[in-house]
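debug: dumping io for the single-chain case to check the tokenizer round-trip. Nothing else runs in this session.
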Amino acid sequence: MDLKRVRELIKKAVNFVLGMFSNDMGIDLGTASTLVFLNNRGIVLCEPSVVAIQTGTSKVLAVGEEAKRMLGRTPGSITAIRPMRNGVIADFEITEAMLRYFIKKVHNSRRLVRPRMVIAIPSGITEVEKRAVKDSALQAGAREVFMIEEPIAAAIGVGLPIQEPHGNMVIDIGGGTTEMAVVSLAGVVFSKSIRTAGDEMDESIINYLKKTYNLMVGERTAEEIKIKIGSAYPLEQETTMEVKGRDLVSGLPKMITISSEEVRESMAEPIAQIVETVRLTLERTPPELSADLIERGLVLAGGGSLLRGLDKLISEETGLPVHVAEDPLTAVALGTGKVLSEIKYLKRLLVKPRIER
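debug: decoded output
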């Protein structure tokens, strides 16, 4: 027996032993939040994709919810950052640290942990960005890495019959990207990914307050405004909210009252981009599948789909029925979990062959 064959057998044996200590994981590695699905246990973690580090170093001080509470509130010695931007890795080292933290947390800090991972990725990312995701997962401790496109994972997660010869369309609106795909016979007929999503809406609110009221607010405040009174379609009963921030003229703390109409107006541009991309996707859909969509409609998933009235607006603009997933926040993570449990049968859905460490 040659040396190469011996090394392969040893590697398989080691992976088998390590696998006994590990639960395979499905991960929705999002710009805003990271969700983890554990085999036989379901979704066990949902935390913000935020890491707090010691300024000038790569020393991690906090991850997830604890780190998010530090955004905009840290002293000079601490920096709270989002290692994911627009659905892709902006900081490789910090993403690796974040993944390692989540792996240990869901495995109760056990040391001999080398799980298989299925990671959902945006459909529009480059080969370099895909490689960064794979490498960060491997460096964080994965023994095998599979990747699946987010709209496919979302379609599986919401229970669409993607293996049937019928058209299904899913729109996944996350923090950094909006993914949409028309799926039939377990394959993507047409997909489109744009880097306009929840974060862009938050940024629009920040800019509106700056221009209209000379008021500076942070990301967390803008997100809170969007969740509490934001909408994409006129509400039956419009409402208002008090917003606190810093006056750009005097530099002093200031409080204003903003209406839901103003928030809707401030987010009009990113919402219009999403609706236009939906129309473009429908225009590129083959006629037979378009006929299916008249009956089946479109399905919204992702945190962005929780914006009030977004389903009504898209339905009005396209003339098609639009349904919001039962639990849009977990759709992608549930999809990775289902793929994980049927990995042998669903490998054709995965992006590129697996990478083994």
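debug: round-trip ok. The chain has two domains: 3-152+333-356, 164-325.
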